[in-house]
Amino acid sequence: MNLTEAQKKSLRGMAHPLKPIVMVADSGASEGVIKELDQALGHHELLKVRIRVGDRAARDELIQQLCRETRATLIQRVGNVATLFRRNPEKPRVKLPS
Question: How close are the terminal C-alpha atoms of the chain, in Å?
Fold first, then answer.
């Protein structure tokens, strides 16, 4: 999904008070983690994921893998926490600015 900078900024503001819903540890992006993240994105649309793996490069690679496999968009990454967004076409919950 292609988002404008204004839309990303709005989503960052909405995500600020959120707590991480999904946590990924040393086992990485297992099938169970992908399934759980996919379900959470379908329900919430906007969420945070805490990633506890090695160094920054490993975290970035894991975040890209999660985004690819769930068709989500990375809104931002701050330290060990990534904010992801995926629009639910049937029941959109998050209102994006035009």
Answer: 14
30-69 pLDDT per residue, tens: 899 999 999 999 999 999 999 998 889 999 999 999 999 9
91, 37, 50, 2: CA torsion to nearest 10: -50
- Domain at 48, CATH number: 3.30.110.60
Instruction: Evaluate whether residue 92 is within a structural domain.
Output: no
Sheet with strand 20-24: strands edge to edge:
20-24, 46-51, 81-85, 73-78
- Model confidence, pTM: 0.92
- Token code pair at residue 72: 């989500």
Give the chain's domain count. Answer: 1
91 found inside a domain:
no
